[in-house]
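Hello forum,

I keep getting stuck at the same step: I have a sequence, I want structure tokens, and every attempt I make locally crashes halfway through. Rather than fight my setup again tonight, could one of you with a working pipeline run this one for me? It's a single chain of 128 residues.
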Amino acid sequence: MAASALGWVLRAARQVLPSPCTRQARSYYVDWRMLRDVKRRKLAYEYADERLRINAIRKNTILPKELQEVADKEMAALPRDSCPVRIRNRCVLTSRPRGVKRRWRLSRIVFRHFADHAQMSGIQRAMW
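Reply #2:
Ran it on my machine without issues. Output:
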């Protein structure tokens, strides 16, 4: 009974205050690699609090070794893709993994193309 009430409260709060991380901007992805990266981002967001709690127990040297070993096993039981290290910055247009301008989330090639054709406001070629 209490669990269902708690679930109802969480759903209601989610409708009132939507999280900016869970809102999807497009209905398709460029390729399967981008879809895989999006899934990794969602898992990392979901498990972030739990990973933080377990890591704090694992790295606390004051606690007994048995408790640290239990935390190690709990960490190993979490999904691999829930680790934020596995997230890769990709270009949102081409899904290119390298040379991505983090501020615009575009690869250097697409960024330069848009800048050359005046399709990005405030960006211009260097002239001296």
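The chain has four helices and two strands. If your local run keeps crashing, start a new thread with the error log.
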